[in-house]
Amino acid sequence: MAEQSTAPSRRSIFTASFVGTSIEWYDYYIFGTAAALVFGSLFFPQFSSVAGTLAAFGTFAVGFIARPLGAAVIGHYGDRLGRKAMLVLTLLLTGGATALIGLLPTYAAIGIGAPLLLVLLRLLQGFGVGGEWGGAVLIATEHATSRRRAVYGSFAQFGVPIGVLTSNLAFLAVAGLPDEAFRSWGWRIPFLLSVVLVVVGFVVRSRLQDAPEFERVKQSRETSTVPVAELVRRHPRTLVLASLASIAPPAIGYTVIVYMLSYGTTVLDYERTTLLTLIMLSTVVWVATIVGAAVLSDRYGSRPVYVIGALTAVIWPLPMFALVNTGSAALAGLAFAVAAVVQGIMAGAQGGLFSEIFPVRVRYSGISIAYQIGGMVGGAVTPIVATALFGATGSSTPIALYVAALSLLTLLAVFGLREGSARTQEQGEHQRN
Fold this sequence. Notes:
Elements: H1 2-6, H2 10-43, H3 49-80, H4 83-101, H5 107-110, H6 113-130, H7 132-141, H8 149-157, H9 159-175, H10 179-186, H11 188-192, H12 194-205, H13 212-219, H14 227-234, H15 236-245, H16 248-266, H17 272-300, H18 302-315, H19 317-324, H20 329-357, H21 363-393, H22 397-416, H23 421-432
Helix pairs in contact: 2-3, 2-4, 2-6, 2-7, 2-8, 2-9, 2-12, 2-16, 3-4, 3-6, 3-21, 4-6, 4-7, 4-12, 7-8, 7-21, 8-17, 8-20, 9-17, 15-21, 15-22, 16-17, 16-20, 16-21, 16-22, 17-18, 17-20, 18-20, 18-22, 19-20, 19-22, 21-22
C-alpha cells in the first residue's frame, strides 16, 4: 500500500519523460540545423563551400561518437544508483554545453580555437544525450503495466519530434533576419534559450522517483557490479540485434532534418525558411503516428509494428528524394510527412520493445548503448555520406539507396529480437528462488 500511495501519477511520469527529453533533443537538433546553415562558413571558413559543409557535418557527427560512451557510463550508474539521478545529470550536461555553444567566438575572432571548442562542447553534448533516452524510457515503462508499456515508452519518443519542432521554430524565428545579422548573432539565440528550458526540465525531473521494479533490485542488492561487462558477456546477441534495429529511424530522420536543409538550399534553391517550415509541419504527423503505433503495439505486440515501420523505411527513400527533387514545396512537404510516418511507426513501438528484451539489472545500459550505436551509424554518418555521394555522383539516387540499405539492416535485425524474453526469464528466476 505504501508503494501505491507514493507512486507518481501518469501525468507526472509523462511530464518528466516527455518534457526532459524534448529539451535534450531541442539542444541536440539545433546543432544539426546550425551545422547545415551557418557553421561551415563561421567555424571552417578556410575550406571550400563543400568542404566546409563536410567539416560542419563532421563536427555534428562527433556528438554521435560520444553518445555510446555516454550511454555506457551513464547507463552504468543508472543501473547501479537509479534512473532519476542520471536523468537530472543528462539534462544539465546537455543544456550547459548547448548554452556555451551560443557564446562561442567564431574562427574570425580566435582562429583554430573556435572549431576546437565547438568540437569539445559537441562531445559533451553528445555524452549527455547518450544516457538520456534510455533513462527517459525506463522511468516511464518501469512504472507501466504490461498492457500499457508501449504507450508509456512512447512518452520519451515524443521528445524527438518535439525537439525537432521547437528547434526549427527557434531557427525559423531568426532565419528571416538579414544574412549578416543571422550569421553574426541571430544563430546564437536558439542556443542561449536552452538555459530557460533546462531550468524547467530540472524542476520537473527533480520530483521524480524510481519505479518499484528497480527499487526491489536495488534494495535486495541484486544490481550488477559492472552492467556493461555483464551485458556484453551474457546478452551479446540481443545487444547487437538491438543496435542494428536502431539504425533506420535516425537514418531516415537525419536525412530529412539535417541533410535536406543543406541539399535543398544549396542544390535545389529552396528557401531555408521553406524547408524549416516543412520539417516543422511534418513533426505533427510524426507525433500523431507515434501515438497510433504505441497503441497498436500494446494491442498486437511491439515487434510486428516495428517490422512494418522498418519495411516502410526500406521503401521510402527513393520516392522521397524524387519528390524533393521536383523543386515543389508541396511535394517536398509530402515527402517529409511520409518520412515522419515512417519514423513514427518505429518510434511508437521502440520503447516498449526495447524495455522487454533486456533484464532490469542491465536494462539502462542495454537499451542506451543499443540506441546510441544505432544513432551513430544511422545519424552521424548519413549526412556525411550523403554529402560525399552527391559530390562524387551529382545524383541523389545513391543517397536514397544508401539509406534504404541501412533500413534493410534494421528490418532483418528486428526479426531476430525476442519480445518479452527478458521479463519472462526474470519471472522464471524469481519463481525458482
